[in-house]
Amino acid sequence: MKERLLFLSARRHAPEQDKEEDLRTKNILGILLERFDIDLLEDYRWRRDTPDLHSPSLKAHQVQRPAVLRRTLLSPLNRLRTGPPGTGGSKPLRTAITEMCRQHTYSHVFISNNMPGTALDLVASLLPGAFIITDARRTGGRETERQADGANGFSRGYHKLNAALLRREERRLMNRTGLLLTATEWDALSYKALSFMDAGKVHVIPPYIDLNMPPYADQGNGCRENLVILHWNMHTVQGREKALIFIENIYPLVKAAVPDSSCCILSGNVHPEVAAAVKRDTSIEIIGEPAQAASYMRRARAAVTSLEEGCGHPARILEAWAQRTPVVSGLKGTEALYCEPGRNILLAETPDAYAEHLVRLLTMPELGSIIAEQAYRTLRKHYTADGVKKKLMSLI
Questions:
Q1: Considering only CA atoms, which of 90, 93, 132, 173 is closest in space to residue 6?
Q2: What angle do CA 354, 357, 363 make, to 5 degrees?
Q3: In this structure, are residues 263 and 285 in contact, taking their beta carbons and an 8 Å threshold?
């Protein structure tokens, strides 16, 4: 008989936004279902279908978050403790967790990275004997520290106090959890630096690709075209800005050097301004159907990703690597992966640099093949499903 696990997750983003947090939740759930019977409790603001994991070992529950009636001008002190509005501290969520703990005995509890704060305190008080696993990120803590370094006057003191309170609560989180998972080495090192005593609890569970499943299995060697793929979330403000920069400032330079080149945008939703810009150039196409994305990626000589805040996720790069398509990306965000500039990825910060890299990949296919092969080797070594599963199971 399987042990029972309580999995707590939250959904903070609107349905039209890309579901990167949902993807990580689904992947980790898929691994844990091999060992546990799982009760999934989701705290949501926008209702959406639960992860598509048809398993008799998974039972999904949902609780709706109360509406936020007001917003403060200043972010509250001690934000990790309170979490996003309603996360971990809403009365309906507290009631649901309490009732589930009365009905079942849980040997393990998993708290996803979008649901820190008082959910941990509640679980620890209701299930003192359970092994608590926390999936965490230090994005908020690092951002607060940067704000403190750049602020002046009264706001500097405010941000420094907030950063100190966050560090205290992050150390407290590390102390109360049995296993703390991060998606990147960067976050793992940041947590380890906070508490030497609890540093051994911190481990990296990166995003992964299952090369044994479609669309990556049996893909063959397709014929490459002078096609450039844009692959990030283009519905957000940040995604729109990056897309327009590419369409208006980078792509014309590529077309001037390689007249027969074309461009394809892989995004389920695009901002209306991006859609309008695409209509002005017939060589650019939008593909919103996920089932078609893989075939376009396999045909392309280059993929452009953006990991800026609000744009994308390291999985975008992994998807291109799995299709043996060389990637051009910005510096920001690539610390999330084992990236070696010039070896398994090309990095750029200016429109001219992006255009130069893309022209090289379009006109020198042998260069793209070398970079793509090195990227594929990196993927197989660090980001395949089998390796990640073995690591996570060995930690629990």
A1: 132
A2: 135
A3: yes
Residue 85: pLDDT over 50: no
Q: What is the mean predicted confidence (pLDDT) over 254-259?
A: 97
Q: What are the structure tokens assigned to 115, written together?
A: 């649901």
Phi and psi, residue 350, nearest 5°: -120, 155
Q: Which tens digit of pLDDT belongs to each residue from 257-301?
A: 999 999 999 988 888 999 999 999 999 999 988 778 889 999 999
CA–CA gap between residue 100 and residue 372 (Å, rounded): 48
pLDDT at 89 over 90: no
Maximum CA pair distance of the chain? 67
d(CA 164, CA 79): 11
State pLDDT tens for residues 234-252.
888 888 999 999 999 999 9
Per-residue three-class SS string for the chain: CCEEEEEEEEECCCCCCCCHHHHHHHHHHHHHCCCEEEEEEEEECCCCCCCCCCCCCEEEEEEECCCCCCCCCCCCCCHHHHCCCCCCCCHHHHHHHHHHHHHCCCCEEEECCCCCCHHHHHHHHHCCCCEEEEECCCHHHHHHHHHHHHCCHHHHHHHHHHHHHHHHHHHHHHHHCCEEEECCHHHHHHHHHHCCCCHHHEEECCCCECCCCCCCCCCCCCCCCCEEEEECCECCHHHHHHHHHHHHHHHHHHHHHCCCCEEEEECCCECHHHHHHHHCCCCEEEECCHHHHHHHHHHCCEEEECCCCCCCCHHHHHHHHHCCCCEEECCCCHHHCCCCECCCEEECCCHHHHHHHHHHHHHCHHHHHHHHHHHHHHHHHHCEHHHHHHHHHHHC
Read off the pLDDT band of 45 (50, 70, 90): low
Buried b (16+ CB within 10 A) or exposed e, 245-260: ebbeebbebbbeebee
Nearest-angstrom CA–CA distance, 46 and 65: 9
Q: Which two tokens stand for residue 121?
A: 């305190």
The answer to whether 96 and 126 are in contact (CB under 8 A) is no
pLDDT above 70: percentage of residues in the chain: 82
Nearest to 26 by CA among 124, 146, 131, 135: 135
